Amino acid sequence: MTHTDMKAPIPLDPPIVALADPEDGLLKTVDLNSPIPVQVMVWPAAEPGYYFQLMLNGDPVGERKVIGESDNAYDLLTVFLSEHLLVENGAYQLRYQTTSPNTDVSDLSPATVLKVDRSRPGAALLAPMIFPEASFGDVLTGLVPGYAGMEQGDVIQTLCNGAAGPTHTVQPEELTLRPIEIDFKREVIRGLAMENLSIEYQVTDRAGNPSIMSLPVLLSIKL
Question: Could you tell me if 193 and 156 are in contact, meaning their C-beta atoms sit under 8 angstroms apart?
């Protein structure tokens, strides 16, 4: 076979999943309750009657989408990926395969990575915050121990006697055994007008999975 006998693959764009995080493809758990919209750009060589089908981890899924008379090159066509195919945690490779009905020749697009994480941070237990000192000047510092599944981007929401307190977003350098520090300013504590304080926290990860509430810690504060 000569070089001229070999068919060059048609250049294709990867499928577009607007709901996925552009950095790593993470999908919000709430978005996994319904079909996921996927956009495919009509490739320049497409003609009416050509079709494409989504491929998830190498397997064809969903129905074929046929290019119509009114579909032009570079138009975005929307198809849907069933949420029932994204039940398990992990990374998925999403592509689409184009086919000419005249020759049955197919081409495969580059992959878009989708990530599913349905696990609650902290699993079944979040330890109480640690306060080395219960008396303070302008700031009272609480320490959040490491918890199961801690990841960059987790949001820690504190509660002071049931009212929303300071929040903290976990940074990459905090993914160690060192506890995370959260500062409670004097005016926040004074605003509660109570000497006895119950502090707890809840973690929500980037996928939107909320943890259980932590065990509370009871403090007697001297302002």
Answer: no
The partner residues of 51 in beta bridges, in order of sequence, read: 66, 99
Question: pTM for the whole thing?
Answer: 0.85
Query: What is the token pair recorded at 20?
Result: 């996925």
Whether pLDDT at 72 is above 50? yes
What is the pLDDT averaged over residues 74-80? Answer: 98
Q: What is the pLDDT of residue 222?
A: 66
How many helices and strands (H and E) does the chain possess?
1, 13
Domains of the chain (ranges plus CATH)? 3-116 (2.60.40.10), 139-220 (2.60.40.3580)
Map residue 31 onto helix, strand or coil: helix
What are residue 205's DSSP bridge partners? none
The torsion angles phi and psi of 163, rounded to 5 degrees, stand at -95, 145
Residue 204's nearest CA partner among 165, 147, 155, 143 is 155
Task: Give the Cα separation of 78 and 63 in Å (integer).
Answer: 12
